[in-house]
Amino acid sequence: MQVDILQRWSLMREKGKAREAAELQAESLLQEIQEAQQDWANAKRHFEYAEGQDQIDYAIFAIEAAEKRYEMLLRHAKRLSVKKSGFRGSEAG
To answer: What pTM, to 2 d.p., does this model score?
Structure first.
């Protein structure tokens, strides 16, 4: 009887640690998504002020890269079923 209680307590403790680790991972991912969204918005603003073909080309590249990173992170969050109420949807800016 005593061993059974200790085993259950140990199992519950391990589940709690796993849940805590998953919550930390989700919070980190949400933070990274917000940063990627901001990077995308910044890249679009940079394009508005680009002068010359080289700057325009670079700005377009930066927008596309930022958008792809943002979308990749959203897909990753969806796979992990990460949710946050009030989180802005699928477009930056």
So the answer is: 0.69
Other CB atoms within 10 A of residue 55 CB: 13
Convert the pLDDT of each residue in 30-78 to its tens digit: 999 999 999 999 999 999 999 999 999 999 999 999 999 999 999 999 9
CB 64 within 8 A of CB 92: no
Residues contacting 69, CB < 8 A, separation 6+: 36, 39, 40
Q: What DSSP assignment string belongs to the chain?
A: -HHHHHHHHHHHHHHHHHHHHHHHHHHHHHHHHHHHHHHHHHHHHHHHT--HHHHHHHHHHHHHHHHHHHHHHHHHHHHTT---TT---S---
From the list 72, 59, 85, the residue with the least C-alpha distance to 33 is 72
Nearest residue to 74 (alpha-carbon basis) of 23, 20, 34, 24: 34
